[in-house]
Amino acid sequence: MKKISGLNFGISLAVAFFVLLNFFPISVIAGQGIPQRVISLSPIITETIYLVGAQDSLIADTTYCNIPEEAMFKEKIGSVIQMNVEKIIQLHPDLVIASPLSREKQLMLLERQSISVFRALNPKTFSQMCDMTLTIGQKLGREQSARQIVEQAQKEVDAIWVKTRGLETPKVFLQIGLKPLHSANKEMFINEYIRYGGGINIAENESSGIYSREKVITHNPGIILIATMGSSKKAGELEKLRWMTFKTIDAVKQNRVFVLDPEMICSPTPTTFVAGLKSILSLIHPEVVFDE
Question: In whole numbers, what is the pLDDT of the chain averaged over residues?
Fold first, then answer.
């Protein structure tokens, strides 16, 4: 067997290290275990990454990721439903965080290329939002930051719940879709906005989110809230004008039909859930004052 000189061995080792640096993330080589090159496949995941302070590790996201504004300038790898697998592979991520809308076949292709994929769930409740924030924070080395965020949000939600749970509970309809008309039942965080805010969701016992104007008229809510994800900023205002033509509804009689910010209401983190809850509380019970 030919003996390898110390010089040749050193050169061979240097070449091997160069190859490793070019084909594997530095964090993996260093054994740190914290991803340094992360790709997000949904807006709520991107927003959570920024929330916990791990945005420097985010190298790409989707065309729908626009909160916070800085996320718009990250590399784009496609939409929430259809990603560009080849582009993702070329970016050499060490973690891809997927949503339930991501296509499983595409995720499996990434995994075959030895790319780590974490499949996050869409949070249905405030508690699940907190769990998701903690999980992403833990995976990205920001566990302490995530825990502080969750604890603060929980503290504020509890404080609001203490102030509203003994109050009169007006009937509320919160619209989140246009065609067909959509609301949310008691299994969704939308219902928690209303419950913690001191109201009763007229759609809480529905089996699905599909509703109808006839049902709204029958239940006669005292407050109508609109958070529709329309094609333009005018969608909510146009829907308000439609509701104002139904003169028999108490909410219309009392001029209590309100347009909400759909991006805050429909895709919240624990922090934006609190902001959304305070906004809705001020409309259901304007007499309630809470400390900032």
Answer: 87
